[in-house]
Amino acid sequence: MFLNKKKKPTSINDLKKGVEKAPKTQIEKKQKELKPFTKTILSGVRVVFWLFIIFIIVLGGYQLVRSKQPKIIKEIYEYMPLESESDRAKTYALSFAKAYLTYDGAENNKYRRKLNEYMTSGIKFPSLTMNTSYIKANDVMIWKVDPLDNNHSNIIVKADVTLKSLVETENSYDDMGQKIEKPKMLDKTLYLSVPIFINETEVAVNDYPAFLSVKKNISIAEDPITDEEAETSEKKKKIKAMAEDFFDIYYEGTAGQISKFMKDNQDDIYVLEGNFKFVELKEFKLYKDGADYKLYCVVDIVQQDTALHFYQRFKLEIIEHEGKFLIKKLSNRIFDNELGGEDD
């Protein structure tokens, strides 16, 4: 007797096994066979593409360097320092600065003769009547070199000086123990711009040296002087009065005070912080420059501790604005020492 067996229901696992065991068609076999080959081709194309990009970049950089290489090499081999910034010019400037800032009232004539050895003719000296004045340059060093061309430069010298003050005193005692007052000896640092002319055979200081603020140097005047018609006497008087007021502030005042004389708020003009005092304008030559003016002047200043006088030359570019005369630019050192024009 046969028993009727119930058919076992199909499970999900049986269905999966059926799918896994199902034979693949010819198309699926071909697709499987083509996939590795296609991947290889794509990988190869990518490698070739990036190699090409790298090649282009390297080639471009090489061509750029190659095109500039002769110029770079030429500049390296052909560059030579200007004569005006040579060691000979620097040594001369240091020697002059030491002589210029070393003065003993007992050797007045010796001081003048010494400076005459350095400076070209036409440079005037102030009257040296204070026989008790004393200043000595202890150490001088090159602070900066501003070459103007092969034969002209401004060499700024930093000088550490000792000076005898005629204003401040200090207590001392004589051999008998008596208290006495004597001038106080002060140590100061000054910055002097030395205008150098140099060629193959000579070196000279060919204009007035200028004391500068260490913060920033005033600019150098290089443009030629044109002898144009001077202004009316009335305007000349006003411009001269403005210049005198300006130099009073320039040597003793503050940056805030000096700004009222300037056309724009110029951060590159610094006062001399009270080391010097303006005395008077020794030379005053005014020229018309279109609607503006050019003033060339030599000022007499005095070092306040020693009462020693020095001359400095300036050029002021001046404009008239709303009834006032304002300074557009301040410069020192003029190439042409023969300043023609009208004196006041």
Please outline the helices and strands:
Layout: H1 12-21, H2 26-78, H3 87-100, E1 103-104, H4 108-116, E2 134-147, E3 152-173, E4 179-198, E5 203-205, E6 210-211, E7 219-220, H5 233-252, H6 255-258, E8 276-289, E9 292-303, E10 308-321, E11 324-332
Parallel strand pairs: 7-11
Antiparallel strand pairs: 1-2, 2-3, 3-4, 4-5, 4-6, 8-9, 9-10, 10-11
Summarize, please:
The chain is α+β, with helices and mostly antiparallel strands.
Description:
With 344 residues, this protein is of the alpha+beta class. The protein has a single domain (84-332), classed as Nuclear Transport Factor 2, Chain: A. It has six helices and eleven strands. It has helices at residues 12-21, 26-78, 87-100, 108-116, 233-252, 255-258, and strands spanning 103-104, 134-147, 152-173, 179-198, 203-205, 210-211, 219-220, 276-289, 292-303, 308-321, 324-332. The strands form two sheets. Strands 1, 2, 3, 4, 5 and 6 form a six-stranded antiparallel sheet that branches. It starts with 11 loop residues before the first helix and ends in a 12-residue tail after the last strand. The model is unreliable at 217-229 and 336-344 (pLDDT under 50).
Features:
disordered C terminus; 33% strand; single chain; 344 residues
Rounded Rg: 41 Å
What is CATH's topology name? Nuclear Transport Factor 2, Chain: A
The biggest beta sheet reads: 6 strands, antiparallel
- In DSSP terms (H or I, runs of 4 or more residues), the helix count works out at 6
> How many separate domains make up the residues?
1
Structural classification: alpha+beta
- Beta strands, count: 11
